[in-house]
Write a sequence for this structure.
């Protein structure tokens, strides 16, 4: 089964809803007791959750944090339909059928330790997960920088950062407190006029920082991004402009999420030409140029 490496690595668990926190814009962070998923999750992987016993279709949601020792995962979502609305009403202690972890995650290279993490909207969770993993890795002197963009209030209470980031516009001082507490610098971007945020798209903020780096620094940079498709396309263009590699995690509608239905297939440039790849198990992480080539 070498052509199906995902088989044997996806688990079905009756997870327990341990905690739920609501943020403006009907955004929720939930903690699920799911030991098997927590032990195998990697940044960029996701879970397929049953939102309510009366709704047959599951919903794919990115994993924001995982604690293998304690056996829990955190998931962030924004209510956009009846499924996630039903999930938001599940009481603490409820059983949530969880299928995961699913998908190929980000693959940072120690040769490029200056990791630029770019998250937009509900694409923020994998960036938090990746930042936490890089902070703990000892195979390089990792220097992650997390940039987040949103046009609705962020799913946390932003505050001024205590970490100076050379190359970031002076007005951009707002950060994600959790990352700041970890010692990981972060900055926020928005066109909604939120205090302390860079006024513009998060990819513009990324370009501003990249433009402040010299050639030696850029040689150590790799971009990791997750968010809406227009943002990911812009990220690919920014990466090409500065000559740095980029990995992007795609957002796509899914039915089975385990590679059976191929409903999430997208065209991807390969060594042998254009091929259709399933976002769920062939991704969701792909090389940016493979899914957003220069002509795209």
């Amino acid at each position: 089964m070498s052509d199906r490496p995902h088989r044997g690595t996806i688990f079905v668990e009756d997870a327990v809803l341990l905690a739920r926190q609501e943020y403006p814009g009907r955004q929720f962070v939930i903690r699920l007791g799911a030991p098997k998923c927590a032990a195998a999750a990697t940044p960029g992987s996701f879970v397929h959750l049953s939102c309510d016993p009366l709704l047959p279709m599951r919903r794919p949601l990115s994993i924001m944090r995982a604690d293998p020792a304690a056996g829990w995962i955190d998931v962030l979502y924004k209510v956009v339909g009846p499924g996630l609305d039903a999930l938001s009403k599940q009481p603490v202690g409820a059983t949530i059928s969880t299928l995961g972890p699913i998908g190929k995650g980000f693959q940072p290279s120690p040769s490029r330790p200056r990791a630029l993490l770019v998250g937009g909207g509900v694409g923020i969770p994998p960036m938090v997960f990746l930042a936490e993993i890089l902070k703990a890795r000892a195979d390089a002197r990792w220097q992650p920088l997390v940039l987040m963009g949103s046009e609705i209030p962020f799913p946390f209470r932003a505050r001024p950062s205590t970490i100076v980031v050379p190359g970031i516009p002076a007005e951009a001082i707002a950060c994600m407190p959790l990352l700041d507490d970890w010692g990981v610098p972060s900055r926020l971007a928005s066109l909604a006029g939120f205090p302390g945020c860079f006024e513009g798209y998060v990819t513009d903020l990324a370009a501003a920082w990249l433009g402040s780096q010299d050639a030696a620094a850029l040689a150590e940079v790799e971009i990791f991004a997750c968010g809406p498709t227009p943002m990911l396309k812009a990220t690919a263009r920014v990466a090409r402009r500065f000559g740095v590699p980029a990995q992007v995690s795609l957002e796509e509608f899914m039915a089975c999420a385990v590679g059976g239905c191929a409903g999430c297939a997208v065209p991807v440039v390969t060594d042998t030409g254009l091929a259709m790849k399933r976002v769920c198990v062939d991704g969701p992480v792909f090389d940016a140029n493979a899914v957003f080539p220069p002509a795209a």
Observations:
- The chain has two domains: 11-102, 114-291.
- The first helix runs from residue 35 to 40.
- The domain at 11-102 is CATH 2.40.30.10 (Elongation Factor Tu (Ef-tu); domain 3).
